[in-house]
């Protein structure tokens, strides 16, 4: 409980620190996306309301809400015959607007580092949607979102004997976080450094962070775990920017 975040106001400094973290990697999120801490019931109701079919974990702890609507459009015009209109073909067509991200919801009462990891993941969903990454497979979208979650945790957790070194749970021995002309900040912003409410990072919280990183790296699910490992391997090899560019144009990770 020493670092549990219990309400929306309590979470705002952490949320803004993670937005700053994104900006530090040339991934500025211009839209002011509301962030709310909610109870599990509210989260479940929001999931039911989302119709875009994104994959969710068995226990969902965060959600990026968006506005979109699917309508039936005409794919091929009909022919006029004696019996009426024939040959009409339709297809579902998704209508969206540019600023489609409406809110980020996170389950309340979780430890600060877990709350932050969820926020980093959900903000990446928002960044992808606001930058026109469309119709990605679950393993691609969830995988790259988990990479950003792991990266943020790695910037927060002090691993004994490995300061400023990649986590041992990453697929390769060297991590290339460069995006554009700016590299990933090696430390978190000042607003997020004091992790407990009383200030200072405790050894318990540090171990929690290592555990959360281990959970991401060793997740058994195809979308979150398999997707993360494929995404991380691509980021390690090509860097984050080239990986994101490849996803934009192909919908897949570079080999």
Automatic annotation (TrEMBL):
Matching InterPro entries: DA1-like, DA1-like_dom
Domain Protein DA1-like: 24-249
Compositional bias ranges of the Low complexity kind: 167-194
Signal peptide: none
Pfam families: DA1-like (PF12315)
Region (Disordered): 163-203
Protein name according to UniProt: Protein DA1-like domain-containing protein
Taxonomic lineage from the root: Eukaryota, Viridiplantae, Streptophyta, Embryophyta, Tracheophyta
């Amino acid at each position: 409980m020493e670092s549990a975040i219990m309400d929306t106001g309590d979470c705002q400094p952490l949320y803004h620190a993670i937005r700053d973290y994104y900006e530090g990697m040339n991934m500025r999120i211009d839209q002011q996306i509301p962030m709310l801490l909610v109870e599990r019931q509210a989260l479940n109701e929001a999931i039911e309301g989302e119709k875009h079919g994104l994959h969710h974990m068995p226990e969902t702890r965060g959600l990026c809400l968006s506005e979109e609507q699917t309508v039936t459009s005409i794919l091929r015009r009909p022919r006029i015959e004696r019996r009426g209109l024939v040959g009409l073909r339709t297809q579902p067509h998704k209508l969206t607007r540019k600023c489609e991200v409406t809110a980020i919801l996170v389950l309340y009462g979780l430890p600060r580092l877990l709350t932050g990891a969820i926020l980093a993941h959900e903000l990446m969903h928002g960044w992808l949607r606001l930058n026109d990454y469309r119709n990605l497979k679950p393993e691609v979208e969830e995988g790259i979102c988990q990479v950003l979650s792991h990266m943020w945790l790695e910037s927060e957790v002090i691993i004994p004997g490995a300061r400023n070194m990649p986590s041992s749970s990453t697929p390769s021995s060297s991590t290339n976080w460069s995006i554009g002309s700016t590299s990933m900040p090696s430390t978190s912003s000042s607003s997020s450094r004091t992790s407990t409410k009383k200030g200072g990072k405790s050894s318990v919280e540090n171990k929690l962070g290592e555990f959360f990183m281990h959970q991401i790296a060793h997740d058994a699910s195809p979308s979150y775990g398999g997707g993360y490992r494929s995404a991380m391997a691509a980021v390690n090899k090509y860097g984050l920017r080239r990986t994101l560019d490849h996803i934009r144009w192909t919908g897949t990770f570079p080999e």
